[in-house]
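Researcher: We plan to redesign the surface later, but first we want a full-length starting point. Tokens attached.
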């Protein structure tokens, strides 16, 4: 009988989820952070487009269920937040060449609703 631990499950995270995780642990005392940790903290503070981690995860799940994207592709789309079909198509065409216009429209609707939720 082997007592080795199974490797931890890997799961792609949205930048908002990473930001929430990092802020929860590092925001209290930034003076003890290493230089790279400070850089990551600053990057996430400045460049995360949607800060609501739960809403981002919900959008990822919608993209997986409704459109059939892989989790990795759904996370990439939510992180980048393209605003048009012209921005979205190059990200998906290679893996999903048969996506129709309605699918692209639905993806953009999901992203737009995510962005609107952030404005409230």
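Model: Full-length starting sequence:
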């Amino acid at each position: 009988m082997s007592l080795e631990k199974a490797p931890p499950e890997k799961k792609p995270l949205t930048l908002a989820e990473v930001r929430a995780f990092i802020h929860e642990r590092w925001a209290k005392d930034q003076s003890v952070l290493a230089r790279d940790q400070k850089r990551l903290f600053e990057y996430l503070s400045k460049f995360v487009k949607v800060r609501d981690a739960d809403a981002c995860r919900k959008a990822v799940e919608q993209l997986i269920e409704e459109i059939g994207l892989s989790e990795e592709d759904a996370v990439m789309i939510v992180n980048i937040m393209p605003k048009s079909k012209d921005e979205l198509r190059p990200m998906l065409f290679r893996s999903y060449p048969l996506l129709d216009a309605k699918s692209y429209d639905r993806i953009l609707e999901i992203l737009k609703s995510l962005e609107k939720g952030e404005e409230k």
